[in-house]
C-alpha cells in the first residue's frame, strides 16, 4: 500500500474513534507477542488465575492476533473513560462497588461503538475484514494498548495513562489493513509503591504482579463458592470489585468525569444505604442492575458478598 494511503487511513480511523467517544487510540502491527509468551506461561503455571479458567484457554490465540482474524495486519487499541462524576460511597462505612460497574454494562456500550467503527472503515477503505474485542479472553488488551503508546502497565497491573490515570476501558479492533504504527511509552511508576501498600489482601505479590486468586475483585465477582475465611475482615466494604489500588494511584489525580450517558448510574444506586443493601430484594436488584455488569454475580452472589463483609466487621 502507498505510504500516503496508509497515513490517510490511519488518520481517518483515529479521528473516527474520537468521534465515537474514545479518548485515546493507538495502533500496533498484528504480530506474535514474543515477549509475552513466557510471561503468560509462567503466570498460568503458577495458577495465578484462580478459577478463571478462560484465561488458560486460547493460549496460542492470545499471543497471536493473526489466529483470531485471518490475514490480520493491525491491532487498533482504544481507551474509554468511565470515571464517574460522583462516587457511590464516600463514607468509610458505605458498601462500595467498582466504579466501572455503575452504569450499563460496558461490553454492550463498547461493542456498539466498535461495530460502527468497523462499518466506517469498510465504507472508507473497501473490503476490510475486522473483529471487535472488549475485555474478551483471547486478546491481551493491556499488552496491545501498551505497545501502541496508550500507557504503561503499572505496579498494580493496570494500564496507566499520564493524562487519564486508569479508570478507563480498553477495547480493540483487529483488522487486515496495514496502518501506521505507534510506539510504547515509558513506565512512570518510579519509586511509588502506594498500590502495593494499600492492597488489603496483599494480592500485589511483587511490583507488577497481581495474584488474581487473592484479589477482592476475584472473590466478589468470579469466585462461585464460599469466600475463604482467611480474607475475613479485609474487604474494606467492597461488595462488587475493588478500586483501592487505583484510588490510591497518584496518576488518578487527573481523572475527569466521563461523558458517556450510558455509564451514568441507574436511578437510586448512589442513594442506596447500608440497610438497603442488606435488605436487597430481587426486584431492587433487577431494577438497579438491569443492564449492568453487576448482574454477573447474580443476586445470590451479591448477597453472599454483603454478608461476608458485614460478618467480617
Ligand atoms: S483490586 Fe483491590 S484487592 Fe485487587 S489488587 Fe487492587 S487493591 Fe488489591
Ligand atoms: S500507585 Fe504508584 S506504583 Fe502503583 S500503579 Fe500507581 S504510580 Fe505505579
Automatic annotation (TrEMBL):
The UniProt subunit note reads as follows: Monomer.
UniProt-annotated binding residues for tRNA: 224
Cite the binding residues for [4Fe-4S] cluster 2. Answer: 199, 215, 242, 245
Q: Catalysed reaction per UniProt?
A: epoxyqueuosine(34) in tRNA + AH2 = queuosine(34) in tRNA + A + H2O
Q: Supply the source organism for this entry.
A: Rhodocytophaga aerolata
InterPro entries per the UniProt record, alphabetical: 4Fe4S_Fe-S-bd, 4Fe4S_Fe_S_CS, QueG, QueG_DUF1730
User: What the protein does?
Assistant: Catalyzes the conversion of epoxyqueuosine (oQ) to queuosine (Q), which is a hypermodified base found in the wobble positions of tRNA(Asp), tRNA(Asn), tRNA(His) and tRNA(Tyr).
In the record, the note on similarity to other proteins reads: Belongs to the QueG family.
The EC number of this protein is 1.17.99.6
Return the protein name: Epoxyqueuosine reductase
Q: Does the keyword Iron-sulfur apply?
A: yes
- UniProt binding sites for [4Fe-4S] cluster 1: 189, 192, 195, 249
Where is cob(II)alamin bound in this sequence? 62, 135, 156, 159, 170, 217, 242-243
Q: Which gene encodes it?
A: queG
Pathway per its UniProt entry is: tRNA modification; tRNA-queuosine biosynthesis
Q: Where is the 4Fe-4S ferredoxin-type domain?
A: 177-209
Cofactor(s) recorded for this entry are: cob(II)alamin; [4Fe-4S] cluster
Q: Which GO terms describe its molecular function?
A: epoxyqueuosine reductase activity
- Please, which domain of life does this record's source organism belong to? Bacteria
Record Pfam families: Fer4_16, QueG_DUF1730
Which residues of this protein are catalytic? 135
Entry note: cofactor: Binds 2 [4Fe-4S] clusters per monomer.
